[in-house]
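Table S2 (continued). Query chain:
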Amino acid sequence: MTSPEPAAYAVKSIDPDSPRVHWDLSPTPAGTSILTLNGDLKPGWLGRLSSHLSYNMISMISGSARKSSALCWDASFEIDVRHSDRDKLKGFDPLCAVMATNDLTTLPTLKLSDFQVERSTRHGGSVYVEICGKDCIGFLYRVLRIFSFYSLFPIELEIATSGLLANDRFWLKGIGSAVPAKDDMTALHERLALMLEEGFKK
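Corresponding output:
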């Protein structure tokens, strides 16, 4: 027996002010949605997107994004709405979110179970960070704000959620795509260590 087709609310859009920005939002048979974005996305786009998703109680379940040139990104995320409020997802405009000039959500308190910070040879030299912790709305947004405090910015990321646990991986560069300094890595490590739950502190 063939499974029924998901409800059709896929949308494709190109920003008239930046013709090289494209997004698509399509439902899946599992009831979640796949959001894809590609093109010239302005610095800070991921933080703005995650902020607006959190404000609308839309959760990022999994996905990845990679910067391929100075501004060009390719991203794909599986997203879902908490409390089964599907109207919020149907009315959500990703392009408005990534082009916005403000954040729309408060910062949640993160409870980490583990993390890793180390130097990587990827992307011509970067900092690899892996973070595991209790999933919550705004998890990614909070992590990105911590990175930006130390002038560290993702050039590639992979996010995953299993049950109540978020496991996100990042490759970070400094301002102007500079290779991050050792002091920045140390400061970030110390900050994340303070966020470990008591039962996991070493």
